[in-house]
């Protein structure tokens, strides 16, 4: 049986270690060694990426230089921005419960009228990821120990460490324009990804004043 990677929240590392988990210091990840039954470690398994729930016919990449949180070097931070017209998979209708049949949720694509930055992406089409990485190669999958999914994060170009998302709003609060130091690249390519919950997306990503650049 090959090694199984685990996502262990740091305060629980003693428990994981006592069960036989090993620490891979190069990749910063716990794992069940080859030959050990992984069943007792199930609560720490990293879950497979869900299928896409966000799509768009085009997208943009906002890039800004920011100091690395660990080594302080200036490194590029990328953020994917979707223009109005992008869609999210969700409940479009509810057929009410009747005698003999249960409530039924009708799912479908729901068009959005806001500009949104998409964070915490758990899966992405190869086309879209290649386009982002052509500008910022360090925008790639990483794991925060304790989280159940690998997600796309910016990483420092110099020390490789995982970075927070952009430290400033995408748009200047006073002028409503794109904030200073941010460049925006448009890609006329289809975009597909899966990201958090709808409320996460709107809560973290809603930038109502971003200029409509299309
Ligand atoms: Zn660094």
Describe this protein's structure:
- This protein is 12% helix and 34% strand.
- It is built from 3 helices and 14 strands.
- Mean pLDDT is 87; it is low at 197-214.
- The relative contact order is 0.22.
- The longest helix has 10 residues, at 126-135.
- The chain has 2 domains: 4-44, no CATH class; 54-205, no CATH class.
- It has helices at residues 13-19, 126-135, 198-205, and strands spanning 4-6, 22-24, 29-32, 54-56, 59-67, 74-82, 87-95, 104-111, 116-118, 121-124, 139-142, 151-154, 183-187, 191-195.
- The N and C termini lie far apart (52 Å).
- A hairpin with an 8-residue loop joins strand 7 (87-95) and strand 8.
- By secondary structure, the protein is mainly beta.
- It binds zinc ion.
- Zinc ion (ZN) binds next to loops.
Detail the topology: elements first, then pairings.
Layout: E1 4-6, H1 13-19, E2 22-24, E3 29-32, E4 54-56, E5 59-67, E6 74-82, E7 87-95, E8 104-111, E9 116-118, E10 121-124, H2 126-135, E11 139-142, E12 151-154, E13 183-187, E14 191-195, H3 198-205
Antiparallel strand pairs: 1-3, 2-3, 4-7, 4-14, 5-6, 5-13, 6-9, 7-8, 10-14, 11-12
The structure holds zinc ion.
Brief overview:
The protein has helices at 13-19, 126-135, 198-205, and strands at 4-6, 22-24, 29-32, 54-56, 59-67, 74-82, 87-95, 104-111, 116-118, 121-124, 139-142, 151-154, 183-187, 191-195. It is built from three helices and 14 strands.
The number of distinct helices, counting runs of at least 4 residues, comes to 3
Mean pLDDT: 87
The low-pLDDT segments are 197-214
What pattern of helices and strands is seen along the backbone?
EHEEEEEEEEEHEEEEH
